[in-house]
Design brief:
Length: 564
Amino acid sequence: MTSSLHLFDPDRHALPLPENFAALEAMRELLHARADGKNLRFVEFALRFEDRFKDTGRTTPLQQANACRRAAWQFDLPNVDEMPAYRAAVEIAGALGLVAYDAALGVGFLPDGRVVPTEFAQAATPVAPAEKLPWGARPPDALRGESEVREVLAPALARAMAGSGFALEATPPDQPGAPIVLARRLGAVRQVLAVNLMRYEVLNLTLRVWHDACTAVLAQALGPEPHQDSAFELGMAFFEPGPGSLHRWTLERLSQLPAILALVGGRVLPLAGLCTDLHGLDQLLNDASADTVRTPYRNAYTWSDRPDGSDGSRSLREEVFPLAQRLVIAHLNGNPLAANIARELGDHWQHSSYWRAPQEREALAAVRATLAHTPPLVRWNDIAAWRAALRPIPAPLQSHTPDPRGRRCHHYEVTEALHQDLRKDPGGFWARFAGPDGTSELTRVWQDKASTLPGSSRIPSDGLGCHVATLPGRAGEGAIKVVCLCFPPITGLDEHRFLALARRGDISRMFRMGYENGLDDDGHMQLRIEYGVRHGNADVITRETLDAELNMQAFLERVAELFA
């Protein structure tokens, strides 16, 4: 989300309400430049806001309002839950006759209830969750196809980024499906936000940054084709687009537009602002300060490859870690640690199992050979001088929000690893847990996983248990023996409460109960029971949705019913 709103009092200054984006910008410039006394409407706004949000940080809204001596007040949203705070601020401002202008998004909320520019009007008042549409019906603000998405998104992005010098590039007439491109040039640096419009109104947003000197080195080292490689790029799926299972940004309806523009104002522009020269690029690619920019998703790794000590999210540096551009930029910027970076990259590709590792080793060797006779463009006395020139990482980039999907690595990784073990070797799983040491083995697995996680990500073992039971089979069939692993209470997607192996004779079946790995169409988690059945000559997995969580007794009863 954006971090501030500009508040205007048009009645106090005898100004008409703004009717469009240009009028909003003109009012902002005029009133911020105009000195004024204490505005009691601003004070009342602050009092009402503080009444709703008690803990608002060191400098309270009331202190801001009392100190404001301009005709416009740039109200900085406090460090609270931003969406409710944003909505409350807009609502309170309207009730007091104030205009609330979000300059990052280019949208104004007027006291008469209107929203300008007009294309934001529907986006600001989405269909309420209670208004569930019939199956197949389209919401009133639905966008139909790529052409409508482009017509809405391109000018909105252009307005949101114009203040930072980005301009919308024309779509080539012979390429109607080309990406939406907004670009700016800052000396030797060219920055681009490219938006590829995919099927089903999915948006792939990528920030790319080129440096002329880096491009020249890559062209000389690798030949004419790869020289278009950017010095830095990051797909915006890195940041949270919402709780959907695939973490994709979409623009299926106008109500989704403000979130995309908030992404631009809160993530894209601050990130672009950091890499406007060699030193900024060097910082993002090679300094530990970039580790504070992280994706919120705790499933950035698979269940088996999360590094010890990680909470499951990934840092910006991890995204760019193996790229030769790191070394090129470090060398050109005179980074005193460039030799260490070269060794680090060499070691990585020497031991990598990635299928392109041989080609990457050759490319790195070619780059190092080119750099050997390429003088740095910047000189630093020592590493202390290099570090002294680093820039603060903007707060919006360091926003550590909870995983929108509720993923908890401790729970997910243990249950998924044991599920994989069961599928690969049912006999070994039975021997491991059906005996007298089953509970102690499960406890060991849980505790071993805890040791790889930060303290804040560890889950208590309450409810952890291993149970062996004999269930009655169907008439004329023998009893079913079951080993059932019970895990701590589930609260997030992809977490499972029970994992069981049921056996009768030489027939084995897997059962588990937990949450799906994605939300349903209404944004809710779905409980399911999943089990193996025999169809013809193949074992297949069947899933059934549950209305409520089962306790262990009810789960075992379902195992007996479903075993076949």
